[in-house]
Amino acid sequence: MKKILFGLLIFSIIISCQSVPNKDQGLEYTEYINSKDLVEQVAEQYPSGQKKAVVYRESDDVEQQPVKEVHFFENGNIQVEGTLLNGQRHGTWTFYHDNGKVWSTGKFIKGKSEGLFEIYDKKGQIKFKYHYKNDEIVKEEYFIDGKPYKTVDKKKTNDSHK
Question: pTM of this prediction?
């Protein structure tokens, strides 16, 4: 009987750990924050009264730490949005052109760039892809008219100069 109870305890621990995203990895953090009940606070406004910056906090957070922020162009379109952990960029961040089209997307872990960042022109065509590892670019990809043009593997380039 003790073995069965111990097995059930271990199983429930494993299941509960899988349902909560690992905040250190940041890979599911943005989705986790966006699923929470957040309280909006306007942090800054344009002279016209239009929102310039908004921060969001979890409604049940006694420390009132911002977990998300959104900045706006004066025309009302979103300029940048992303999630925060302990005051640092953490999770997915998206930057926009003033026409509302995506300018750049990428992920951060504890304030450092990690993984793929994509840069687009105002028409929505891909221009660059940057691959980050621990806040350093390890690979660059360039595009012309949305088609691959050139790839630079920074790791190979850096290793060849040693």
Answer: 0.78
